Amino acid sequence: MTYEQFMDKATSPWMLKNGPDHDIVLSSRIRLARNLADKRFPTVAPSEELEEIMEFFQREYEHTPYHDNETFHFVPMSQLSSIEKRVLIEKHLISPLLTKNKETAASLISTNEQVSIMINEEDHLRIQLYDPGFQLEKSLKKTFEIDDWIEEKVNYAFDESRGYLTSCPTNVGTGMRASVMMHLPALVLTKQINRMIPAINHLGLVVRGIYGEGSEALGNLFQISNQITLGKSEENIIRDLEGVAQQLIEHERLQRGRLLENLGTRLEDRIFRSLGLLTYSRIMNTKEVAGRLSNVRLGVDLGLIKNVPRNVLTELTVLTQPGFLQYHAQKTLTPTERDILRASIIREKLHEVE
Q1: pLDDT by residue (tens digit) across 41-74?
Q2: Which helix (H) or strand (E) holds 265?
Q3: DSSP string for residues in 194-244
Q4: Is 95 annotated as a binding residue?
Q5: How would you label 6-31 residue by residue, b for 16+ Cβ within 10 Å and e otherwise?
Q6: Maximum CA pair distance of the chain?
Q7: Per the annotation, does 202 bind a ligand?
Q8: Is 181 one of the annotated binding-site residues?
Q9: Quick one: which residues bind ATP (predicted)?
Q10: Is there a binding annotation on residue 109?
Q11: Does residue 178 have a known ligand-binding role?
């Protein structure tokens, strides 16, 4: 398998499975920040030292099988084009920051794309694992197993009183970021999300858009994650995040029922109008597509639309991003060219399921 195969399909294999509460929680993610005890951190280390670290992880873990016969594949940033990097970012397999250290940065990505280990980003290692639906405890357990597997060959920078040491002080302690990606159209339509976000932030959690810090919540997709890593155990962090996420799930389901009851035909019109526009439009920009796909996903979850699989909507969410469109076209496109190609791909996918 070559790294190009990670870009051939918009949906990772794990995305095709339905997890708990999958109508609202699209995914659960655990990310661990780790540094090597005997090496300078990437923010101050010379390139020669970072290159040695990258080569070590390639030598020790490339093509190495892990649980369920999954194998890790080494993807160096120096061999990727700008469009290929963007595709991997859009699939959440790497971070934008990793691509800035292109000569000394890489990622180890599992065959099923569920696990990626970024090398020489802000820290020596950023280990991240995704699961479908709402299953943070299961995700944490599997991530700990991978963390232990790696630690068999390296020593982590760790302090008995402070915990894991990281380049950024906000990650010191557990070094863990746990998050859930949630689809909350009813809370947005009823404007309840506006009062909930400050309350969530007050609890030590943060609400971001689909691509994390600084990104917009396109398509009513919100990433809820912990802010505090020091002074709490990983289990307590997960418990707090689960509690808030469970309340959001309950409020979202309640508001979906009320919208259906109170708006009736007007809600159906909003949903089916979006489906019609997606099916027949010739030009569509990223923001409009995100909103229309959100409406259609809501229609599927409410049982109003029965012939459009959720997997198709998930695929279109990624496939219509700028990087994927240009990778598909095998060239750089102007914004107008992207809008035309985006509409064409959506029409083709939706006609396939008619």
Answers
A1: 999 999 999 999 999 999 999 988 887 667 999 9
A2: helix 265-280
A3: HHHHHHHHHTTEEEEBTTBTT---GGGEEEEEE---SSS-HHHHHHHHHHH
A4: no
A5: bbebbbbebbeeebebbbbbbbbbbb
A6: 64
A7: no
A8: yes
A9: 27-31, 92, 126, 177-181, 208-213
A10: no
A11: yes
